[in-house]
Every structure is written in C-alpha cells, then in structure tokens.
C-alpha cells in the first residue's frame, strides 16, 4: 500500500484530552479520530489491526463449531420489558422511536434477541447444543466516556451465545469457551488473568472476567503470585481466621458523640483502633432493608452480600430511607435494638469482636463495649468484606497481591435466566418440557485494540507484534526525487509483495525526519530504509522493538526477512 494513497493523518502534538499514552498514540499515529464524546472512527490502520484480531477470534470459535450470524442492532423495547432488564439497565441504553411512535432500543447486549430467535425455531433437544456468535457494533450510554476506546459509547464487540438441554452440557461448553478465550489472548500476546467475577446486570451465576494487565486499567483484582487464584476485588475470598479476645465483656454504655459520623472520627473520639469499631451499612436487598456489619478497618462488598443472600439487586439505602426506617442519621446506625423485621448480616470478623463501639440508632450517640450475641442478634454471617492486599490466599498457601488491568472478555453461565422469562422451552430427552440452558460469552474488540496499544508502545510510538501490525514492513525511500532510490524502492516493494509481505511504502515527498517520526509512531515491526547506499544495492533494516539496524544487500533482504518473521 502506498502511504500517499492511504489515510494516515498523523499528529505532531499530543492531544490535550488524551490522558493515557495508548490513547495519545492511537490519535497521533492516525489510527482513530473522535467524532463525539465516546464515539470514534477507526481509520485504515486500526481497521487492519481489528481484522487481524477478528481472524484469530473466528479461528478459535470455529474449533468449537460456533457459527457466525448477524443480529439486529435495533430491538423492540418489548423484548427488554419481557426480560425485566429495561428497568434495571435503562440509563445506559439508547432509545428511539420510528415514525409510527413504536419504541426501540439500540443493542447494548443481545441476550433477549438471540433467545427469542432460538425460542421460535428450536423446540427439541435433538438440535442442541448450539452456539452462535457475531462481531458487531454495540451502544452504551456511558455516563462518563473516557480513555479513548477503553470506555466508549459506541464500540465493537464479539458476543456469543450457547444453548443446551442440560446443565452438564452448558458446563462443558463453558469450559471449552474458557480455554478458547485463553488461546485467543495468548495468541494476541497479551498478559492477562482470568478472574472470578460478578454477573452484574447480565444475570446468571458462574462467571469469569479476562483482564489484561495494565497500570492504567480500571479493574482491580486480587491474585496469587503462583497463578492458582484470581478474582475481582469485590469477590476475592477472605481466608482469615479470627480469634476472640479473652478480655471480659464490659457493661454496655451509651456515649454522646456529637458530629462524629465516620469510623475515623469515632476511632479518634474513643481513642481506639478502627478494628474495634463496628461499621454498619444499611442496604436495599431486592427491595428489603438489610443491615450489614463489618469491622471498622474493613469495607462491605455488595457483590458478596448479593451472593450470600442469593439476591438479584443490592444497593446502598439513601439517607431518607435510613431516617424513615431507623429514625437517625447515617453515621449513627448500629445493630442494637433494630426493628424485628430487619435482617442483620455480619462478616465473620464481627463475630470475634469484644467490647466494640457501634452506632446507637440515635443521632449523636454511640454505644461502647458492644458485644455480638449478647447485645444484638445476627441472622446470617459470612464473608462479606473486601480482601486486603497481603492477606492469606483462599488456598492458605500464600498471600494475595493486587493487580490492575483492562477487562477485555467476560463469560457467563446464564442458566435459565432469559429462557424462562422469554418462554424458550424445549422437549428434553425424557420427553419433558424444560427451559433452555444458556451461556453468554462477550469480548470487547475495540477495547482489545486499546489493550494492545497499552502493551505495545514506547515513547516514540507503537511496537506492534508481527502478526497484529497493520503492515509487516515500512519501506521508506529517503528522497523520492532521487531516481536510484525511488527505483530500488519500487523494485523492493513489488518483490516483498510477491512474497506475501504486507508492505507500506512511504512514497510521500517529505523530509526524512518526518518519515522516520511517522514510522516510529505507526510502529510496524520492520523499517527498510533506502538511502544513500541505494546505488550499491544496500538497504538499512531497523527492528522497531529493539532498535537494531542492519545493512543488507537487496538480494538477501527476502531471505533474512522471511527468517525474521518466521521466529
């Protein structure tokens, strides 16, 4: 491809609104351009990278007999009303209506659409299992789009869905897809962790996220150094054993604590460590009030509460609800003398506390010398707090570390969440009517571009790996006005293409410095420069990742490049 004929609008200045180096390079190297907040055009270089990512994905999915399809982006709102997701997810979904005032939604996900399609066409186990996938643009009305392609409102996604007659069949496919994702990310050359994750608004129970390691990622996860365990921070298991103090229980005492609403303030007021304070949060769990208790130096994980209570929705109760139900301000809530219909859920650590401090459910007051079971009842106890870095790992063999990264894939066992709501029923092998078992497997392709850009760059620009680079070779005649240089460049261009190298030739009438700067920004694996030694048939070859340079005779270029790309 001639550089004069391909659209690569490089920039010299760093865009002011681009914070991450990867985002800066994608803009400066002419890979993407912003149309509006969170909406981007993928220019020719980015498109070529995307196509190579898609090729790897298709190859791995076809090994699982997955079949590609294309589903409607615009969906009737009634589908989401039937599944119940319109009410839980409506702020992030773009809506529109046609000239007849019928309401539609732009697809942020396709569970409802694919389930209704299969429901209408398949009614027997004999046509299962079935896996379909698509690669398509999705839309999500992000409250705060940021970091370029990492948090966009319009993005490219691969979503796949599997349908089964039994849970065992779903389990088998889930494991196969897990391995396929691992193979995809390995082939892409990404450093990643597969972590135990939340189901969020998708639904289902068993789920894993695939997170590419990056200091600029939004996702924090806990993992063991030897790689046997990884989970999102909200679900990472706590394996700490708590010992109850032998200190005698003291008499419960009500203490005035004006304007002392935080654990930090209470800790200072009573001159005691935060771990001797009880932190009380009021939650709405499937619409019911639940009080949760953790130690003052710990934090409640809503995701763990959701799992422990097998709930659909968990959220913090607002100040008005707290005042109406408990008659006090937030900051003074505690576990003593609660209404009988309110469940109390305590973390394991709370059960081992002795002579603690807790809110008195009266504004301006706390209780001192609070003891679980003696002074208040606990309905349910469990692991409901965030793990802390350095704590014992779930297997007890080591300690956990924290990592940060970019979520690029998420797989779910949906079970019958959608098939029951949308009446996707089949006749099983025993002749009984049963709801389809479903799996859902998402992968963010445009986000993968950003993740790759995060991993493959230096101060000068990109350092694309050979199999993902937009082109293999950047061929640069230093002076196109020099007939010898231009002639050798054109000969090399034709020869390289005949050997199936993907070549970008910089045939622009620009200064050498401009060409070399653009070449570093674009970041192709190999730069072949044709300059002053062209008359001797010598070209300069530079490896982008290492900076190594070689002077090769034109006759040996093909053999040496072939060997370089073979390794």
Automatic annotation (TrEMBL):
<protein>
    <recommendedName>
        <fullName>Proline--tRNA ligase</fullName>
        <ecNumber>6.1.1.15</ecNumber>
    </recommendedName>
</protein>
<dbReference type="GO" id="GO:0006433">
    <property type="term" value="P:prolyl-tRNA aminoacylation"/>
</dbReference>
<dbReference type="InterPro" id="IPR036754">
    <property type="entry name" value="YbaK/aa-tRNA-synt-asso_dom_sf"/>
</dbReference>
<dbReference type="GO" id="GO:0016740">
    <property type="term" value="F:transferase activity"/>
</dbReference>
<dbReference type="InterPro" id="IPR004154">
    <property type="entry name" value="Anticodon-bd"/>
</dbReference>
<comment type="similarity">
    <text>Belongs to the class-II aminoacyl-tRNA synthetase family. ProS type 1 subfamily.</text>
</comment>
<dbReference type="Pfam" id="PF00587">
    <property type="entry name" value="tRNA-synt_2b"/>
</dbReference>
<dbReference type="InterPro" id="IPR002316">
    <property type="entry name" value="Pro-tRNA-ligase_IIa"/>
</dbReference>
<keyword id="KW-0963">Cytoplasm</keyword>
<dbReference type="Pfam" id="PF03129">
    <property type="entry name" value="HGTP_anticodon"/>
</dbReference>
<keyword id="KW-0547">Nucleotide-binding</keyword>
<dbReference type="InterPro" id="IPR006195">
    <property type="entry name" value="aa-tRNA-synth_II"/>
</dbReference>
<dbReference type="InterPro" id="IPR002314">
    <property type="entry name" value="aa-tRNA-synt_IIb"/>
</dbReference>
<feature type="domain" description="Aminoacyl-transfer RNA synthetases class-II family profile">
    <location>
        <begin position="33"/>
        <end position="465"/>
    </location>
</feature>
<dbReference type="GO" id="GO:0140096">
    <property type="term" value="F:catalytic activity, acting on a protein"/>
</dbReference>
<keyword id="KW-0067">ATP-binding</keyword>
<dbReference type="InterPro" id="IPR044140">
    <property type="entry name" value="ProRS_anticodon_short"/>
</dbReference>
<dbReference type="InterPro" id="IPR050062">
    <property type="entry name" value="Pro-tRNA_synthetase"/>
</dbReference>
<dbReference type="InterPro" id="IPR007214">
    <property type="entry name" value="YbaK/aa-tRNA-synth-assoc-dom"/>
</dbReference>
<comment type="subunit">
    <text>Homodimer.</text>
</comment>
<keyword id="KW-0436">Ligase</keyword>
<dbReference type="GO" id="GO:0002161">
    <property type="term" value="F:aminoacyl-tRNA deacylase activity"/>
</dbReference>
<dbReference type="InterPro" id="IPR004500">
    <property type="entry name" value="Pro-tRNA-synth_IIa_bac-type"/>
</dbReference>
<comment type="function">
    <text>Catalyzes the attachment of proline to tRNA(Pro) in a two-step reaction: proline is first activated by ATP to form Pro-AMP and then transferred to the acceptor end of tRNA(Pro). As ProRS can inadvertently accommodate and process non-cognate amino acids such as alanine and cysteine, to avoid such errors it has two additional distinct editing activities against alanine. One activity is designated as 'pretransfer' editing and involves the tRNA(Pro)-independent hydrolysis of activated Ala-AMP.</text>
</comment>
<dbReference type="InterPro" id="IPR045864">
    <property type="entry name" value="aa-tRNA-synth_II/BPL/LPL"/>
</dbReference>
<dbReference type="InterPro" id="IPR036621">
    <property type="entry name" value="Anticodon-bd_dom_sf"/>
</dbReference>
<dbReference type="GO" id="GO:0005829">
    <property type="term" value="C:cytosol"/>
</dbReference>
<keyword id="KW-0030">Aminoacyl-tRNA synthetase</keyword>
<dbReference type="InterPro" id="IPR023717">
    <property type="entry name" value="Pro-tRNA-Synthase_IIa_type1"/>
</dbReference>
<dbReference type="Pfam" id="PF04073">
    <property type="entry name" value="tRNA_edit"/>
</dbReference>
<dbReference type="GO" id="GO:0005524">
    <property type="term" value="F:ATP binding"/>
</dbReference>
<keyword id="KW-0648">Protein biosynthesis</keyword>
<dbReference type="GO" id="GO:0004827">
    <property type="term" value="F:proline-tRNA ligase activity"/>
</dbReference>
């Amino acid at each position: 491809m001639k550089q004069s004929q391909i659209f690569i609008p490089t920039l010299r200045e760093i865009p002011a609104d681009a914070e991450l180096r990867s985002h800066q390079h994608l803009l400066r190297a002419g890979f993407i351009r912003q149309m509006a907040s969170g909406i981007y055009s993928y220019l020719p270089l980015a498109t070529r990278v995307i196509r190579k990512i898609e090729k790897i994905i298709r190859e791995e999915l076809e090994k699982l007999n997955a079949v590609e399809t294309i589903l409607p982006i615009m969906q009737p709102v009634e589908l989401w009303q039937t599944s119940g997701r319109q009410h839980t997810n409506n702020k992030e979904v773009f809506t529109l209506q046609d000239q007849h005032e019928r309401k539609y939604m732009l697809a942020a996900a396709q569970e409802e659409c694919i389930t209704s399609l299969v429901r209408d066409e398949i009614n027997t186990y004999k046509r299962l299992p079935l896996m379909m996938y698509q690669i398509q643009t999705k839309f999500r009305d992000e409250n705060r789009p940021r970091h370029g392609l990492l948090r966009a409102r319009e993005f490219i996604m691969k979503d796949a869905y599997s349908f089964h007659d039994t849970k065992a069949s779903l389990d088998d496919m889930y494991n196969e897809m897990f391995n396929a994702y691992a193979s995809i990310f390995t082939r892409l050359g990404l450093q990643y962790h597969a972590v135990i994750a939340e189901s969020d608004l998708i639904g289902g129970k068993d789920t894993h996220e695939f997170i590419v390691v990056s200091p600029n990622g939004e996702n924090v996860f806990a993992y063991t150094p030897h790689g046997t365990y990884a989970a999102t921070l909200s679900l990472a298991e706590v394996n700490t054993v708590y010992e109850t103090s032998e200190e005698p229980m003291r008499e419960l005492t009500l203490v005035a604590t004006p304007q002392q609403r935080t654990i930090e303030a209470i800790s200072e007021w009573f001159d005691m460590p935060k771990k001797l304070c009880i932190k009380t949060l009021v939650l709405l769990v499937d619409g019911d009030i639940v009080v949760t208790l953790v130690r003052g130096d710990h934090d409640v994980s809503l995701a763990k509460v959701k799992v422990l209570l097998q709930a659909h929705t968990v959220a913090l109760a607002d100040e008005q609800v707290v005042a109406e139900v408990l008659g006090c301000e937030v900051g003074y809530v505690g576990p003593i003398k609660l209404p009988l219909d309110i469940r109390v859920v305590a973390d394991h650590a709370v059960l081992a506390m002795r002579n603690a401090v807790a809110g008195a459910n009266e504004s301006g007051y706390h209780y001192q010398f609070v003891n679980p079971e003696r002074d208040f009842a606990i309905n349910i106890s469990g692991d409901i707090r965030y793990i802390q870095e350095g704590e014992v790992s779930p297997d007890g063999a080591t300690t956990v570390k924290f990592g940060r990264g970019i979520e690029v894939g998420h797989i779910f066992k949906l079970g019958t969440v959608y098939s029951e709501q949308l009446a996707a029923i089949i006749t099983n092998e025993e002749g009984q009517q049963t709801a389809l078992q479903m799996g859902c497997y998402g992968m963010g392709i445009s986000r993968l571009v950003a993740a790759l850009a995060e991993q493959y760059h230096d101060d000068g620009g990109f350092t694309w790996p050979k199999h993902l680079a937009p082109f293999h070779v950047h061929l640069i005649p230093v002076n196109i006005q020099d007939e010898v240089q231009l002639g050798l460049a054109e000969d090399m261009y034709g020869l390289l293409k005949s050997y199936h190298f993907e070549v970008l030739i910089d045939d622009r009438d620009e200064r050498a410095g401009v060409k070399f700067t653009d070449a570093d920004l674009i970041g192709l694996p190999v730069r072949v420069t044709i300059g002053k030694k062209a008359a001797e048939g010598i070209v300069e070859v530079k490896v982008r990742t290492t900076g190594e340079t070689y002077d090769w005779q034109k006759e040996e270029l093909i053999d040496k490049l072939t060997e370089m790309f073979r390794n």
